[in-house]
UniProtKB/TrEMBL annotation:
One of its GO terms (biological process) is protein catabolic process. It comes from Serinibacter arcticus. Gene3D superfamilies: 3.30.1390.10. Involved in the modulation of the specificity of the ClpAP-mediated ATP-dependent protein degradation. It holds the Pfam family ClpS. InterPro entries: ClpS (IPR022935), ClpS_core (IPR003769), Ribosomal_bL12_C/ClpS-like (IPR014719). This is ATP-dependent Clp protease adapter protein ClpS. Keywords: Hydrolase, Protease. The keyword Protease applies. Belongs to the ClpS family. The lineage of its organism: Bacteria, Bacillati, Actinomycetota, Actinomycetes, Micrococcales. NCBIfam families: PRK00033.1-1 (NF000668). Residues 23-93 form the Adaptor protein ClpS core domain.
Length: 99
């Protein structure tokens, strides 16, 4: 006596979510009259893990243009980055990525 054959199964593709696409968010650091450029570079290197060159480019953008987008991603992560920048004494805001 043999065991009954198992029914053939096919893998079904995972359903695709339909609806609004997930929007990105960005953390913006603003120029201020208080913090030294070397300190802003230090914060970018320490918090975001940027190398010296990237941190300096962003710091100069803050200094020259008045602001720089320093990180982008999901809303909760960007809220945490803004809060961290405030903890370091930098002016930072969160904005929805228009793209």
């Amino acid at each position: 006596m043999s065991a009954p054959a198992l029914p053939e199964t096919r893998e079904q593709p995972a359903p695709v979510a339909v609806g609004k696409p997930v929007r990105g968010w960005r953390t913006i650091v603003w120029d201020d009259p208080v913090n030294l450029m070397s300190y802003v570079t230090y914060v970018f290197r320490t918090h975001f893990g940027y190398d010296r060159d990237k941190a300096e480019v962003l710091m100069l953008q803050v200094h020259r243009d008045g602001r720089a987008i320093v990180s982008s991603g999901g809303r909760e992560r960007m809220e945490a980055d803004v809060e961290a920048m405030h903890t370091y004494g930098l002016w930072a805001t969160l904005e929805e990525d228009p793209a």
